[in-house]
Structure formats: structure tokens, C-alpha cells
Amino acid sequence: MNKLELLRYEYQKENRSQTLFIFDTNFLLLPFRLWSKGDEIINLIKDNISTEQIFIPYIILLEFHRNIDYVIEKVSNSLQGIKKLDGKAYELNVDDFTNDLKIKL
User: Origin, by domain of life (predicted)?
Assistant: First the structure.
């Protein structure tokens, strides 16, 4: 295959067994960032790609290891922030309802 043919190459399902997938750090961290869809992403990979077709360079694993705690902490903080906002919204609704009730009585 010459360079021009490579530019016109279209991925087809029948070529899947010959494909090598190389994942970067951001891709590996994605299931942790998208916590609600994380299992779905992992299962999609497991169901469609053979482990022999996956290559993860050593430097990518180091970056993943260096960043995973930060990503988990960031997602955890975001979830806690959402819970606090949800609690405040509930309190505001109760207060508004109580005030409306007092006015009507």
C-alpha cells in the first residue's frame, strides 16, 4: 500500500482483526471521568476488541497512574457539590412552600 492509498483507506469491519488499538492516558481515564457511563465504555471495549489487539505504551501507564487519583478526587468533589446544591434546592423549595402556605392561611 503506497502513501496515497493509505490516505484513502477506509476502516471496514473485516479489517478489525488486523487492527492494533493504542490507547492514550485521556482515553484510559475517560471511564473514571464519565462515572455514570464508565462501565458501559469498558464493556464496549471488552466486547469488541481482543486483548491481543490492545497496546498501551509504558509512558501512558505511568501517566495514568500519576493522574488517576486526581481524576477520582475531582469527580468525587463534583458529585459532592451536586449533592450540596440538590440539598439547598430542596431546602429552598420547602421554605418557599412554607412561606406560600403561611400567606394563604
Answer: Bacteria
pLDDT digits (tens, 9 = 90+) for 45-102: 888 888 899 999 999 999 999 999 999 898 888 888 777 766 665 555 555 655 555 5
The verdict on pTM exceeding 0.85 is no
Residue at 30: amino acid letter = L
Yes or no: say if 31 and 64 are a contact pair by the CB < 8 Å rule: no
What number of CA atoms fall less than 13 Å from residue 8's CA on the CB side?
A: 5
Which residue matches cell numbers 439547598? Answer: 88
What CA–CA distance (Å, rounded) separates 24 from 60? 6
Residues 6+ positions from 53 with CB-CB distance below 8 Å: 17, 19, 20, 21
C-beta separation of 32 from 72 below 8 A = yes
